[in-house]
Protein 1
Amino acid sequence: MPTRIFSILFILIFLSFHAMANDIVYELVPLKPGATPDPGSSYVIQNMPRATSQQALGLCYGHSAATVFNYYQCQAYGLDCPNAPKNQQASAFDMSRYSLEKDSKLLSMSRSDYSEIREGGNPYNALIIGALAIRRVVSQECVTEEMLFKEIYVPTQVMTEAQINAQLAYLQALESYYQQHTVKALACNGCSLSEEELVTFKKVYDTDKNAKQVGKILSLPTFSAFLSAIVMPNKCVRAASNVWFEYSGHYESVQFPKHDKDRNYTAVFGAIKRAISANNPVIVTTCVYRLKGRKNCSDEFKHSLVAYGYGKICKKNGKCRDVLKVMNSWGQEWQDTIGKEWFDAKRILASFDYKKDALLWLQRAGTDQ
């Protein structure tokens, strides 16, 4: 089975061994409960979307992109974003299909060219393709990770290690079935399953698709493409089941830093402040865990989240620290408890060594950065 990137899994496992693993530093630690920025030093974007959960999938990039997408949809339609109807909010699971690496000058304008749900993807591609190129994403009402995990889906809580392991086992069973049957499906050009084969498949994954549709999906060339196609309900292909990005043509994407001279804390935090002050949430690539003494971030520790507030907290001795408010993809319980606090900005930003394009946001076209 191919190696996957499961952000939540690594967090839970490594947290349990944190006291022993002195060479590993957990970076997403909030300040003490109730810590607040000094008067006049902070700004927080209001009316952010409700928190989502990536479950045991490495789709943090899709959730970050969907959070930004949905924030702007709420502004466009005057919605109470935390309580916005699910048929007017983009699905992070579907948003993840747009992570496919493509030359930005040769972006396809056809949704059918983005047919795979890839773990460990790129939030930049997901956002600019979903919002600015294709301009539409299937709604949360039509598809979410719940359609994949069904009864082992965890709606709002912080997931336990046992819950994550159950989902991983489920994914492994689904991929094993695909690997065992895709060769046969390819050999007969996606021929229909027999009714007996369909019954067997439904014991692995209960689907609304018929024997002919499942046979065709099994002939897809990768498990990522199979996963996308088998989870997506038939009704989701309709335009009415999509959320169309209202600001397409009026907004542009910005990445920062672009130059080596800006790869430092002062420049990066300054860019975040400017974007947030203009009511533009910022997708931040960070390193959830870092090995002491090393600047490089292992792929399994890379994570993306959305910064939507900044401030400064100073002690009586005059020592100050910059802080951020962040929206994560670990469920509403995490957001309402840990996520409600402020986070040390330098700790989050320095963990990824201020790499090029670590920040991403949308802004009105023609606006100075």
Protein 2
Amino acid sequence: MPAVNAVEPTRSNQDFIDMERDIALLRRQVDEAKREASPARKGENEARKQIKDLKTKLANETRATNTYWSCLKRSRRDMG
């Protein structure tokens, strides 16, 4: 018996899945950069800059995904 609330893959769903994948990748990169950054190593400022850049990218991707998701929900509500 098929699931009642199964969602068929569409282009908009795939875009959302891709955005979530990008966010997860950026989160992993931020975590890796934090682990690699050590005050005893040379290039401390570069490591901090890299972490800051990755956090900015993560925030931008999250904001874009949330905006996309709210538009998708609004259009589904308007259609049905």
Protein 3
Amino acid sequence: MDLSQRISVRRLSELPDFRANLARDVGEGLRDDPRWFSTKYLYDEEGTALFERFSRQPHYYLFSAETDILRHRARDVMEAVRPQEVVELGSGASTKTRLLLEAMHETGCCRYVSLDISERALRTSAEELTAEYPWLQVDGYLGDFDTDLPKLSRKGRRLLVFLGNTVGNFRTRPQRIEFLRKMSSVLVPGDALMLGFDLRKDVGEILAAYADPEGVQRQFLMRSVAIMNNKLGARLPDGGEHFSI
């Protein structure tokens, strides 16, 4: 079976919906106090590459800590769950995803499903992973995991994976609770959820993790201005300062 037969990419949200959702979220964010911009729109090809670069910096302990946990425990999780499909929110081609795939293959699973807002990120990761793992079937879904998660097709017992402390991107506790309920709604008895989040830390330790001596995080977050200009026709200046708080 050639690579193209082991990859499928399906769109769950049409482009007009994406723009409408972006315009709605930007409007709400600019009217709110404090103002905010939903980070989910930052993870296109360029944004994903910037975040991957930032996350590999030695002071960002979250990536290395989570990777170490998976390196030692991914096989135990797969043995306990015995999934028939692994569903990851966000298209993965990083070390963490590879650790999951290798562990799931050892327990007989070969279907990896990813849901991402960026079609290019989906296709790139699918091509990289299927080229590296000849046994792997990748089903990519283009959509917003906050709204499109229930639309994913099911092929059997599911391990749902949401790593990287991404749950922290939800601004409020009620939003986090609501999303946890959404994830629960797509799971049935026998399924499992693998959720990555940070533990309570000293404020200084957290601030040190987000120190940005090379300016990579600033590039990543300031892309919000470029996205509003390019997608919504805004005319915002691209200068400005960035502070992690």
